[in-house]
Amino acid sequence: MKLFLRLVVAAVLTISAYAQTTQPSASEWSSKSKRAAEDAVASKIEMIRGSAKRPALKRVNPSTKELQLVCTAALTGRTVGDPVMGGLETYATDDLTAETKPLMEQALGRDYPDKKWPKYSVIVELRANSTPDHPEYTVGVDRRPSAALEFFAPLFFDVPFKGMNEWKKRVAPDCKNRKTESSR
Fold first, then answer.
1. Do the strands 137-144 and 88-93 form a parallel or antiparallel pair, or are they unpaired?
2. For 106, 114, 153, 167, which has the most beta carbons within 10 A of its beta carbon?
3. How many CB atoms lie within 10 A of CB 7?
């Protein structure tokens, strides 16, 4: 088990180093590098949960809303969250393997019952002020409820569906075209 954890840590650090050294600019950041950066953060979440003896979470593709809000955070420098479900946390970092407070909260905290919030998604974007010599990232991590709860949750709001699309007003114009991919 210890050998396995060492191999996982070595892989994460390798991926992180690759992701941090291959992006010449935000506009030229390849999808392969972006995916490697997201995988590094996801591996960190899995290691945090494993070391705390918590059950594994299922990683899912981010929603269009998550992609657009994290993109907006990266361009504007603001911290954003999900105004509907409240699970999205964003933070800025130059080290994708750092155990930041938002990452720890998403991995372990906030009294998320694992049976009702068993999924998570990760989005990593280069920040607007990132340079090839010193890449900076905006990381978005979202704990997600079960598919049934996610689908039916708006029905249980005080005013069902009211304000469900208000988040779109917060999205930066350059981020409005971000769509989900069919697979990670």
1. antiparallel
2. 106
3. 10
- Return the number of other C-beta atoms located less than 10 Å from residue 98's C-beta: 13
Radius of gyration (C-alpha) of the chain in whole angstroms = 16
- Alpha helices for the chain (secondary structure H): 2-21, 31-51, 64-76, 101-107, 147-152
Question: Using one digit for the tens of pLDDT, what is the confidence trace for 11-24?
Answer: 444 455 444 443 33
Residue 27 CB neighbours (<10 A): 7
Unique residue bearing structure tokens 């800025």 = 92
Element (H, E) at 93: strand 88-93
Q: What is the pLDDT of residue 48?
A: 93
Q: Residue 134 is which amino acid?
A: H
Global pTM reads 0.72
Tally DSSP H helices, then E strands, for the chain: 5, 4
Give dist(CA 141, CA 81) in Å, integer. Answer: 10
